[in-house]
Every structure is written in C-alpha cells, then in structure tokens.
Write a structure and sequence with these properties.
The complex is a heterodimer of chains A (about 270) and B (about 160). In chain A, about 20% of the residues lie in helices and about 30% in strands. Chain A is an alpha+beta fold and about 270 residues long. Chain A is globular and about 65 Å long. With about 160 residues, chain B is α/β, with parallel strands linked by helices. The chains are: A alpha+beta (about 270), B alpha/beta (about 160).
C-alpha cells in the first residue's frame, strides 16, 4: 500500500474517532459567543455609598449586574470536551450518556471562566476578582458520587429547585426529564453546585460562584443563545432548536454580582425569583 | 395677518438663537469611539484568557490532595451520637490514603498524589471530616443506626 493510502487511512480513522464538537472551542473563542447584552440588561444602580479611606471620603456608585464566571459543560461521552485546553485524562471503563424512559444521564464539567474586565472603562461594573480560568470539577473523576450522591445525604435535607427546570438535588447526573436540552441545563447546574460545595465529592478546586436561581445561564454550544434567568418558566423556548446530535452542551454561567468601587468588593448575590 | 404681527414675527425670527437638539448637563467630557483601541483591548482580553487557560489545563488535575489529618497513634474504638440518613445504616465508610485503602462500602481518600488518578469514591474535605467527626487516619466508620456511628481508629 502506498504511503499516501496509509496516511489517508490514518486520517480517516482519527477523524472518525473524534466527534465534531471535540476541541471545537477555546477560552478565547467562547468570548466571541458571549451575550454581552446580559451585562447591560441586568445592570442597575442600587445607590451611592461613601466610604472613608486614608482620611478622605470616597463616594461610589453601588451597582449590580450579571457577569460571566463559569463554564458548565454537559456531554454524553466521557473524557471528551468542547474545550481544546482541557487536559487528556486517563480513561476508565465506565459507561455514560443515556436517556431511557425519561431518565437522562450525562457527564458534566465545571470551569471558572471570568474574562478580565477592561480597567480603563469608566462605567462601574460588578466583575468578580480572582482566577480567570480554572478547572474545578470533572464528573468522570467523581464517578461514584455523580452516579449515587450517597454521601450528600449526610448534609442538608433541603430541596432547592430551579423552577420548572427541576431540583438541584440529588446532586447526581441522573435527571428525570423528557427533554434532553432541559436535562442538560439542570445537569450543568447540579455539577456547579457540587463544585461549589464539595461535601466530600471529588472536586479539583472549589467553584466560587454557586449557580443560583434567578442568576443567568447562556448556551454557547451547539447553538449560541441569549442568556436566560435560571429557572425561567418558558422551557419550550429554551429547548426549541437547541438539541445536540451528540448530546453535548456548553453553557456560560453568569452570576449576579454587586460592587461599589473602593467600598464594597464584588460579591455574588443571593438567589431570586427568575 | 396684519402688518404689525408680520413685523413681530420677523423680529422674533431674527433675534432667536438656534437651540441645541439635545442637552446633557451632567454628561461630562466625551471622546469618539476608537475602533483600533477596541480591537486592541479585545485582543488583550483574549490573550490573557488563552494564557490562563493554558496554565490551568496543565496544573489543575495533576494537583495532589491532602486533608491534613494526622496518623492514628493506636487502635481505638469510639461511638458518636449524630443524626445519620437511613440509607447509610449498615454501611462502612473508610478514611485512608488512596494507595492504602481498606475494604469498605464507601472509600474516602485522605490524600493522593494526583487528583486525576484518584481511585477512591470521595475525598476527605473539611465538611465531611467534621460531619463524621474523623480525627485521624486510617479510620473506618460504621453506621450502626440513624443516630449511632462507630469509629474504629487505626484498624
């Protein structure tokens, strides 16, 4: 066989092994898909604060707005990701990704993703500080926890929910939901909750921005959508035309923050009605 | 219109000053948008994100884990009274190093060399250690009932 044929065969095999979404996005290209209007739509002035500092008084505008703080990825093929930067992990033998009788399962990942805010902009925007990009949680490393959520029973017995999207607990990848798209939204949120409060789960680094009802989520793959309030009641609009052929979804988590320059450091706001 | 009124209109038209369409008394100074500057700022944000992502990808999953729990001195058995879920009654939960894990229903690693290679079911973070009142490593916790927890330290 000629070398050209061998190379073609190798290329064909490698292409077949690689799913279309794999490595299709980077931290930088996700930036181009962000719904910037989400900041403007949620921006509001809460008041004016005056703080003493080194013998002087500084006034500031106390504002709140949504700001991107994380990536929530939901896939049905373990160890495969939209993100080119995600390191290759040693594959283990377990199954993933199914949806039978309305019971959906998928793997999920959580990454801190805080695009740096241009400092010379004079508009006061509440943007969180801290790491810009960090891998927080890979459900593949937390296989027993993501499948059973057994040790979670030792902690809170409350059942907080994101409206019609479903409840944040049990914090596992199994979701009773007919729609794969809505299930993916909820699986992403649950993973975000696990990463922000590990309670013994295998978490690489705690995620500082717990996904909360009334904050925002934006689908960036397979289709780019505008950000929506978590728990928004119009689930039909949410799922229309957003299905993925491979069951792979990528969301940007927009937390609601408040801040007042020199007076109040940016902080995540409590949940609110969507 | 009589002559007097027409003259008045002409005088008013001559004396009137053009009024600006829009007044922003508190707008302050402004400058035109510079598209090259916007492009540069955007590229700078992209570059910073890309380098942060590159560093995170290399470091995160290879990080070690250590709960900081001390080693148990001698074998000791104690029973703690705490509220426990019925689903865990009869189950054993082992807290030990990932490479020296005893048999148990739930295996909790107190330390491991790389998070990406952890074999245990859970990690002994502060919340879990405090909840089950673990003091040292290795410890095997057996849930006797919904209120009784038996802890065997240094088994």
């Amino acid at each position: 066989m000629s070398s050209w044929k061998v190379l073609s065969l190798v290329a064909l095999c490698s292409l077949q092994d690689r799913l279309p979404y794999e490595g299709s996005l980077t931290a930088a290209t996700v930036l181009t898909r962000l719904d910037i209007s989400c900041v403007l739509r949620t921006w509001k002035i809460k008041g004016v604060l005056v703080c003493p500092w080194k013998g002087r008084k500084y006034p500031c505008l106390w504002v709140e707005n949504a700001y991107p703080c994380g990536l929530l990825e939901v896939v049905r093929q373990p160890f495969r990701s939209h993100l080119a930067e995600l390191p290759a992990l040693p594959a283990r033998n377990f199954t993933s990704g199914h949806g039978e009788g309305g019971l959906q399962f998928a793997e999920a990942r959580v990454l801190t993703y805080v695009p740096p805010f241009p400092e010379d902009l004079e508009i006061p925007i509440a943007a969180p500080r801290g790491p810009q990009y960090r891998i927080n949680y890979l459900s593949e490393l937390d296989a027993p926890g993501w499948r059973t959520g057994l040790l979670d029973l030792l902690f809170s017995s409350a059942r907080p929910c994101a409206g019609p999207w479903g409840c944040y607990v049990p914090r596992s990848g199994f979701v009773q939901q007919q729609s794969e798209v809505i299930a993916a939204h909820l699986q992403g949120l649950r993973a975000g909750r696990v990463a922000s409060s590990p309670w013994g789960r295998v978490v690489i680094q705690p995620y500082e921005y717990e996904p909360r009802t009334g904050h925002y989520l934006q689908m960036v793959s397979p289709v780019v959508r505008a950000c929506v309030s978590i728990g928004h009641p119009d689930v039909r609009a949410l799922e229309a035309g957003a299905g993925s052929r491979h069951g792979a979804y990528l969301f940007v988590h927009w937390g609601l923050f408040e801040a007042c320059k020199r007076c109040l450091a940016p902080r995540l706001l409590p949940p609110r009605s969507p | 219109m009589n002559l007097k009124a027409s003259a008045l209109v002409v005088v008013c038209a001559l004396l009137a000053e053009p009024e600006p369409v829009c007044v922003h008394p508190s707008a302050g100074s402004s400058c035109r948008v510079s598209l090259p500057a916007v492009r540069r700022a955007y590229e700078s944000v992209q570059d910073r994100l890309a380098s942060a992502a590159f560093r995170a990808g290399r470091l995160s999953a290879d990080a070690p884990f250590d709960s900081g729990l001390p080693a148990c001195g001698a074998r000791r058995l104690r029973v703690e009274r705490t509220e426990l879920p019925v689903e865990l009654v009869g189950k054993t939960i082992a807290f030990a190093r990932d490479d020296r894990m005893p048999k148990a229903d739930v295996r909790v690693a107190t330390s491991c060399r790389r998070l990406s290679e952890v074999d245990a079911d859970a990690l002994a973070d502060g919340a879990l250690v405090e909840r089950l009142r673990i003091r040292c490593v290795p410890t095997v916790a057996r849930v006797l009932s919904e209120v009784d927890l038996e802890l065997v330290e240094g088994p």
